[in-house]
Design brief:
It is built from 11 helices and 6 strands. The protein is α+β, with helices and mostly antiparallel strands. A 6-stranded antiparallel beta sheet has the order 1-2-3-4-5-6. A hairpin with a 4-residue loop joins β4 and β5. α1 runs parallel beside α4 and α2 runs antiparallel to α4. The longest helix is centred in the first third of the chain and has 44 residues.
């Protein structure tokens, strides 16, 4: 009965800040993408329903990061509040051990870890694959979204397209310059004041109908240009040339289902190849699933340590940011070493889990022994020394 009451109470303290932190972290990471999606609506006329679909496909990539982040914040804020109000001290005085406090939080961590593992193994790769496909469909149906104003667009091989202005909803362009190098023997430079942009689903081609312009043709074997004026000129492009690179990236490790990823690793190893990219992706997916468990041990240990009762919400938030930065810095280091083949993918991707998990175990042992950390004492000594030095260096007032 007491265990159920303790479990419910801890859940009620952790879940509210977890959902608030999840919304906050996800919103912060999505700000850049949201601006680009809003730009597609305003300047390119992409329907809101299609934008919502793109948003839902982008979301899993960020959730696999923000879910563990929000869980660490929830533990530090929820248990930190209890520690600040002396509730954890009262629990210890009534015979509740740190292990009994850890187990209910670990049960929540296990559920969140399974959800994170499902995100990394299945949901995120499927969402990335669907996102590539949706961007391909947008490029086909609204090619204006692929053309940027006032820059040379080189998406098509051997073709440069410059557009001064694209008029919403993206089917009309003004001030168009096209440099066509598809023919090995000559180069065509096409100028048009206005262009109507269309796409043909049957031939899978893009049409640019240019009005009131000129064509400058130069033979590569001899100098000089020949000029031709036109009132209407039709310029055709193959859409497969535009979306070809997207199709090639669809089978990349980040978009592969788990079964295909394992098959790709086995196929490369059978040919004697290293399959570093595939192994890095596989171990990153698996290691991310254990992050909530690591953060659970770390967060509970930090709140149970002596002197934790002095912490407030702002201190808990700063502590969360510090450990998140430390974890993802170790992750970036491990990925860099793994990509350069300095470390095997297994130690490279599991490096932050091992280091942060080891620190969490050490902190929990300190909490079990009611032993304060060395770091707070060191910081107090450093602060006191700095204060005494400031007093010594302060100029004395003259009489």
């Amino acid at each position: 009965m007491k265990r159920r009451i303790l479990f419910r109470y801890l859940v009620s303290e952790i879940l509210p800040p977890f959902f608030v932190g999840l919304l906050a972290f996800t919103f912060i990471l999505l700000i850049g993408r949201m601006v680009k999606l809003i730009e597609l609506v305003v300047t390119r006329g992409v329907p809101l329903l299609q934008i919502a679909k793109l948003f839902s496909l982008i979301l899993p990539t960020f959730l696999e990061m923000t879910v563990p982040m929000a869980f660490l914040l929830a533990i530090l804020l929820g248990l930190g509040r209890m520690s600040n109000d002396q509730e954890l001290l009262a629990m210890k005085a009534s015979g509740v051990s740190p292990t009994q406090i850890l187990w209910p939080v670990s049960a929540i961590a296990l559920i969140i870890a399974l959800a994170t593992l499902a995100l990394t193994l299945f949901v995120r790769p499927a969402a990335n694959f669907a996102l590539k496909k949706e961007l391909y469909n947008i490029a086909k149906s609204r090619i204006g979204t692929a053309l940027k104003e006032k820059v040379f667009n080189d998406d098509f091989p051997k073709i440069l397209i410059y557009v001064e202005e694209i008029i919403p909803p993206g089917n009309t362009a003004q001030g168009v310059l096209i440099v066509d190098n598809r023919d090995k023997t000559r180069e065509d430079i096409i100028l048009g004041k206005v262009a109507r942009i269309t796409s043909d689903e049957e031939s899978n081609s893009l049409g640019l109908r240019l009005f009131d312009g000129s064509i400058y043709e130069r033979e590569k074997s001899r100098p000089g240009f020949s000029q031709t004026r036109f009132n209407i000129y039709d310029f055709r492009l193959d859409l497969d040339e535009l979306v070809g690179p997207v199709r090639e990236r669809e089978s990349g490790p980040k978009e592969m289902p788990l079964v295909d990823l394992l098959q790709a690793i086995n196929a490369k190893q059978s040919r004697g190849a290293d399959a570093i990219a595939e192994k890095m992706e596989l171990h990153q997916r698996i290691s991310f699933g254990f992050v909530p468990l690591i953060f659970c041990l770390l967060g509970v240990s930090l709140t149970l340590l002596p002197r934790a009762s002095r912490a407030n919400r702002s201190w808990g938030f700063m502590l969360c940011i510090f450990w998140l930065m430390a974890y993802y810095a170790l992750l970036s280091l491990g990925k860099a070493l793994g990509d350069k083949s300095i470390l095997h993918p297994v130690p490279a991707l599991w490096l932050p889990n091992v280091i942060v998990g080891g620190i969490g175990i050490h902190f929990f042992r300190q909490a079990m022994r009611e032993s304060p950390l060395f770091l707070p004492r060191f910081f107090e000594f450093a602060a006191g020394s700095a204060g005494r030095m400031a007093q010594m260096l302060r100029p004395r007032a003259r009489n």
